């Protein structure tokens, strides 16, 4: 048996090794064990999550590909078109080398999209870092943002939005989730398959180097160990090569020369080839001596497990190799035949006719699955039962607290981040970053798509089931408030070590909550990624399910944005009639942590009410009744109203507080709520629709002037609001750097 250190290098347990020997009937050699380490890794096999992911419903008539069957999900949007979408993590590489980790995360998710024959049309991201007071966290933050822009801006795909969140639990283990969306005629979808025996395996794109070896097994499938030098496990990207690779692959898909296409991502050629063979029910034979290498002395082991970027595996029909080479040569890309699909069901690796390893494909793709018993984290019940009645009203004024919230890094404008991204390339962007959701027009049709990412690790920590529901509900709410109907979801499940029962509890409960919410919205989870072992110094991150939502607008001209538009418009809150103030709405709120230093309470969500509120919001937008719409979430009602004023450049005057607990009324986050502004003459129609839909509502004020006024509690100028919100993040970075 190999040493424990050798098995740890591959993230294979001793029990798993014994299972390999028993099922194989012999001990594997080093190369074969490396293949098992890749294909059986948590990152590739989803050993602890696949049994849970089966809870997601997949019965949407729009679904074109079963979740998990291809590189990304695909849904029908009508007019003969399909949207391909996926979100994926690059957390661990970004913690080591933030620029290259984030850059190659973008490159990898883009390849997943065009590997299905779709042209990438939009990028998004969801980022988490530790507090900016730490120089290390500032370094990670700056490096990740630079990596995303440095790669994304070179490949001609607009980066149209996302989110950035800061919390203690992400210190040392940032989350870098990249999302990509593509479009294609639905009949052009291509699979990652070998097809049938006799088809030729061709490797195209970059030469193979030593970067990224053990990235899937050693880096993404276990927790960090400070004494280990992990930089060699981080890949290095070349966005200019990726750009021509996109165009070349899309040209190949339009021909009759190929039957399959696969990205060389985690574990490189080893997983790409074996997964294609598994899907095609074939074997494969690869001669590693034919693989172009950019470094001297690379072993077959290194060559098969390398995660060098900008490489694709193309499955070519026999006799079409020269035609493929001619297309690739036009794009200055190399194409090399490295093997064939076989009919024996084995993965055979040779070097100049010498067999180096031979394993059944079915064994490599049949990793053990673990269905564990989770236990509720110790102390969680006490946190959930926290008595908010013991929290006194702050001595600070409501105005001062509002300015503090608007300037806090989690709420402040992220313009300093997204201004580094090109979000207008391809000329399809209708609504740019900075709102609740981005909107992209679908050229050649009247349609548009809306995109948003969302997730709240703090609330998921307090109640994983509700946190999972909230991730779905808030992502869907973000696309609903621009007028789009949510039709599909992609998710990235970022959690700690699942072998710990408390972490497994968080994962299981979150997936249950997401499944329930996905079903309620009739929006299936069509793709995604699970990123586990996100820990540093033995402490797990907040359980952070991130959801990317795809919304469809049949008429892209019928959309709304956050900002108030017209003096005299009435402002209406739907989803809450404000008849009572609920202390429990402080649970997990930004206000509670910022002002009181507490993360406590038991967040809740009425998913049926959420669906009704969003349905109503979309209806009034489609009827042309409203001037603006905005999701009410982080920071509560006062923050949402202030954001609408800032982005609209116009004031607000409101009276709605019916309790002396102004902190809860202004900054509580509990209900499913949306702020609408509309002309006075449309108000009766809105009220009728609310009553017909059984959606509670409250008329809370009017748009106009140059000040922000709420009862006797808040009286601020628009300039003061804008200064805090627009400069908050940059000020926080600068102030922390000077300490």
Descriptive account of the structure:
- With 739 residues, the protein is α+β, with helices and mostly antiparallel strands.
- Among the domains are: 1-40 and 190-366, PurM-like C-terminal domain (Phosphoribosyl-aminoimidazole Synthetase, Chain A, domain 2), CATH 3.90.650.10; 377-426 and 560-739, Alpha-Beta Complex (Phosphoribosyl-aminoimidazole Synthetase, Chain A, domain 2).
- It has 26 helices and 27 strands.
- Strands 7-9-6-10-8-11-12 form a seven-stranded mixed beta sheet. Strands 22-24-21-25-23-26-27 form a seven-stranded mixed beta sheet, with helices on both faces. The chain has a six-stranded mixed beta sheet with strand order 13-14-15-20-16-17.
- Strand 3, helix 8 (135-152) and strand 4 form a beta-alpha-beta unit.
- It starts with a helix and ends with a helix.
- The model is unreliable at 226-231 (pLDDT under 50).
Keywords:
seven-stranded mixed β-sheet; 27 strands; alpha+beta; 26 helices; single chain; 23% strand
């Amino acid at each position: 048996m190999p040493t424990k250190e050798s098995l740890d290098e591959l993230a294979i347990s001793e029990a798993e090794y014994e299972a390999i020997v028993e099922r194989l009937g012999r001990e594997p050699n080093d190369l074969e064990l490396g293949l098992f380490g890749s294909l059986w890794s948590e990152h590739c096999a989803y050993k602890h999550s696949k049994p849970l992911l089966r809870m997601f419903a997949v019965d949407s008539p729009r679904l074109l590909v079963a979740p998990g069957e291809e590189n990304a999900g695909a849904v029908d949007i009508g007019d003969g078109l399909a949207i391909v979408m996926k979100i994926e993590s690059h957390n661990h590489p970004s913690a080591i080398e933030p620029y290259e980790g984030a850059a190659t995360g973008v490159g990898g998710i883009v390849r997943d999209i065009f590997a299905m024959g779709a042209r990438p049309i939009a990028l998004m991201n969801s980022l988490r870092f530790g507090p900016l007071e730490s120089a290390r966290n500032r370094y990670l933050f700056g490096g990740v943002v630079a990596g995303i822009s440095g790669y994304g801006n070179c490949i001609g795909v607009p980066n149209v939005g996302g989110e950035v969140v800061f919390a203690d639990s992400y210190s040392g283990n940032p989350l870098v989730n990249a999302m990509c969306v593509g479009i294609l005629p639905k009949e052009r979808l291509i699979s990652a398959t070998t097809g049938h025996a006799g088809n030729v395996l061709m490797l195209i794109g970059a030469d193979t180097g030593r970067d990224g070896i053990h990235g899937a097994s050693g880096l993404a499938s276990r927790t960090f160990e400070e004494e280990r030098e992990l930089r060699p496990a981080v890949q290095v990207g070349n966005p200019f090569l990726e750009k021509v690779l996109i165009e070349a692959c899309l040209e190949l898909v339009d021909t009759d020369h190929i039957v399959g296409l696969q990205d060389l991502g985690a574990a490189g050629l080893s997983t790409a080839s074996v997964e294609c063979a598994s899907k095609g029910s074939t074997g494969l034979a690869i001669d590693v001596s034919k693989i172009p290498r950019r470094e001297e002395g690379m072993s077959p082991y290194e060559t098969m497990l390398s995660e060098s970027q900008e490489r694709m595996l193309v499955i070519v029909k026999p006799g079409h190799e020269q035609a493929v080479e001619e297309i690739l040569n036009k794009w200055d890309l190399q194409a090399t035949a490295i093997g064939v699909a076989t009919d024996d069901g084995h993965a055979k690796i040779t070097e100049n006719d010498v067999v180096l390893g031979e394993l059944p494909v079915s064994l490599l793709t049949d990793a053990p699955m673990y269905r564990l018993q989770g236990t509720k984290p110790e102390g969680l019940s006490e946190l959930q039962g926290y008595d908010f009645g013991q929290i006194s009203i702050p001595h600070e004024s409501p105005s001062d607290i509002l300015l503090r919230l608007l300037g806090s890094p989690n709420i402040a404008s992220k313009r300093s981040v997204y201004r580094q991204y090109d979000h207008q390339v391809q000329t399809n962007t209708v609504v740019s970053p900075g709102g609740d959701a981005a909107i992209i027009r679908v050229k050649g049709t009247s349609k548009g798509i809306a995109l948003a990412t969302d997730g709240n690790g703090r609330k998921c920590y307090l109640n994983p089931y509700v946190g999972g529901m909230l991730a779905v509900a808030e992502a869907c709410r973000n696309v609903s408030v621009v007028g789009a109907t949510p039709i599909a979801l992609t998710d990235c499940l970022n959690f700690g070590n699942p072998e710990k029962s408390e972490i497994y509890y968080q994962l299981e409960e979150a997936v249950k909550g997401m499944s329930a919410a996905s079903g309620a919205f009739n929006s299936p989870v069509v793709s995604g990624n699970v990123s586990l072992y996100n820990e540093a110094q033995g402490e797990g991150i907040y359980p952070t399910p991130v959801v990317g939502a795809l919304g469809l607008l049949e008429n892209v001209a019928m959309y709304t944005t956050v900002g108030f538009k017209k003096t005299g418009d009435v402002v209406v809150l739907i989803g809450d009639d404000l008849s009572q103030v609920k202390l429990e709405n402080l649970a997990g709120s930004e206000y509670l942590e910022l002002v009181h230093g507490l993360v406590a309470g038991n967040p809740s969500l009425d998913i049926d009410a959420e669906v009704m509120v969003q349905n109503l919001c979309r209806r009034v937008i489609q009827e042309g009744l409203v001037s603006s719409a905005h999701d009410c979430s982080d920071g509560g009602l006062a923050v949402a109203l202030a954001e609408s004023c800032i982005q609209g450049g116009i004031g607000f005057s409101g009276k709605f507080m019916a309790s002396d607990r102004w902190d809860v009324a202004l900054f509580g986050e509990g209900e499913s709520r949306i702020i609408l502004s509309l002309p006075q003459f449309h108000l009766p129609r809105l009220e009728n629709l609310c009553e017909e839909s059984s959606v509670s509502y409250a008329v809370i004020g009017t748009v106009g002037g140059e000040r922000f006024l709420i009862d006797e509690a808040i009286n601020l100028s628009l300039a003061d609001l804008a200064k805090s919100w627009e400069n908050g993040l940059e000020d926080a970075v600068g102030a922390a750097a000077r300490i």
